[in-house]
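Recap for those who missed Tuesday's class. We walked through two folding examples back to back. For each one, the amino acid string is listed first and its predicted structure tokens come directly after. Nothing is annotated here on purpose, so try labeling regions yourself before you check the end of the notes.
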Amino acid sequence: MQKITGIGVYSLAKVQGLMGAILGLLAALFNIGLTLLVGAIGAGMGGGGVANELLGGGMTVAIVMLVVLPIFLGVSQFIGSLFVGAILNVALKKAGGVEVRIESETPSGL
């Protein structure tokens, strides 16, 4: 058994920040799809000018979210992970680490 007794706080924060940015991008894409769907339904129900105005405003918000959401989630995940990593290192030190079993893969033909 191998023991993890500490982690690289900055390394953890970089990975979590990237994951937050990716999740933010996926959430923004979902938001744009939902905006297009609701706008199309509203226009199809005879909303006319009001539905078109709402769709235009919704698209503006969706495009802004496409930029803002990945940045916001990436930065917030990065900062949060700095704190979590520091606390985790203290907990690992107090508890004596975490045991991990690591097995090496051997090629099946040998």
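Example two. Treat it independently of the first, because the proteins are unrelated.
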Amino acid sequence: MKRITLADGTGGEKMMKLIKQYVLKNLNSNAKNIDVGLSDLDDSAVVNGIVFTTDSHTVKPLFFPGGDIGSLAVAGTVNDIAVMGVSPCALSSAFVIEEGFPVDDYEKILLSMKKTSKYAGVPIVTGDTKVVEKNVVEKIIINTSGIGMRSRTLDENIKEVKRYRRFDEKWIKDSNLRDGDKIIVSGSVGNHGIAVLSFREGYGYESEIKSDIKPLNKMIEKILKVGGVVSMKDPTRGGLANTLNEFAEKSKTGIMVDEEKIPIKEGVKSACEMLGIDPLEIGNEGKVVIGVVREKAEEVLKALRKTEEGKNAEIIGEATKNVNGVVMKTVVGGRRIVETPIGDPVPRIC
């Protein structure tokens, strides 16, 4: 009998196989009122013009440098809505708590959620609480869901895209990339995964590397006002490598990236070299990967760099018909294939 493993939930190829073979097979719907549905495998769905998403959080440890399970739950759901190009409106929050969990820690998590929600400008308006026996869950699991609504900013962004190429979609989706579109990453990658792993295992890197958890809806709003954005995704489980491969597969185009242009902090590089981990496969919680028409790429980059969250943004490559999948130009002048990771090398980071 087949059984679910931890690797089935860490993002990447193994989790996607599970979703395609079982979830899509049994739950997919072709209802006419669904613009973006389960089979699109985007960060959110769109039903009757309302953007909707849900996410469950099981990070270990619950508190780590730069954040905690509460800030992670709020920021992650806000970002999943925002990358669709819409304004997040409200969140729900459901808790599954192990009996005996310290009330002081519970309140600390709630206050963190309140602070992050206030920063994003997205209120938590409903929820649920369940308490279970010891050893049934890992102390506490938080599920957050959210809704968002279309804004004039999205319509103006799409109007700007159409100035430069054909664009038939109504929403920002992973599948919207086309030959010549530029790829931008909003900042250094790998921070969150390394911060959590280092703190959990006591490697010592947590003194210089902190999680990048942040709601990005305000930053995204600013680049949509510039216009020309066609695809966006926050590179969580499976990291940048997984996101780029999802873009390429869904858009049916190759992607070429430049290794020298990918921002990675020295502390993250050192930790990855010591642990034998590829920093491109590590999850992030405060970054976004953006596809933008060539003609608007520099303007979008400039707008990003004016924000605190995007000050280290870089144009790292472009969509191209000249390669298959994702290919990287290395610092030594060669090329290598960036494959879809089997899963995030750092488990339990979100």
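Answers for example two:
The chain has two domains: 6-148, 153-337.
The radius of gyration is 19 Å.
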